[in-house]
Write a structure and sequence with these properties.
This protein is mainly beta. The protein has 2 helices and 8 strands.
């Protein structure tokens, strides 16, 4: 179980971490290939919010261990999703561009369903029904 405390890798300072990774972008999307956990490094939500009086109900859920290591460009925006109950809600979305083999640019955030969960499963479990259609869009 994760302990609700800020930690740095042994023998390293925060300046060392920032020198290696640049601006620290904490990420919980563990399936992303750019999400990297650094041994011994973690931050708490209270520290990230600069609110030392923040007391989470579930401490383990409020410990951040993954860094986004895509150093070239990251864009963070808000997307509007509609919950199953019909409420519209703004959620942060991270945009990183990628290229297909045909040279087209794709916004991978478009592959999220309205509730914020991804369509399909992992790329390893992909089947023919999850292939590209004639317009270059994913099948649902």
């Amino acid at each position: 179980m994760k302990e609700y405390v800020d930690k740095l890798p042994e023998g390293q300072t925060e300046a060392d971490i920032k020198e290696k990774y640049g601006k620290l972008v904490w990420c919980r999307f563990l399936a992303c290939k750019y999400n990297q956990e650094v041994e011994g490094l973690q931050r708490t939500t209270g520290t990230i919010r600069k609110n030392s009086s923040f007391k989470p109900i579930n401490e383990a859920a409020e410990v951040w261990t993954g860094l986004c290591t895509r150093t070239s460009e990251i864009a963070i925006d808000f997307a509007t999703i509609t919950t199953p109950g019909g409420y519209k809600q703004k959620v942060p979305s991270c945009h990183v561009s990628s290229s297909s083999t045909r040279g087209e640019r794709h916004d991978w955030s478009k592959l999220l369903q309205s509730d914020g969960s991804p369509y399909g499963g992992s790329m390893e479990s992909r089947t023919a029904e999850h292939d590209w259609d004639k317009h270059g869009d994913w099948y649902n």
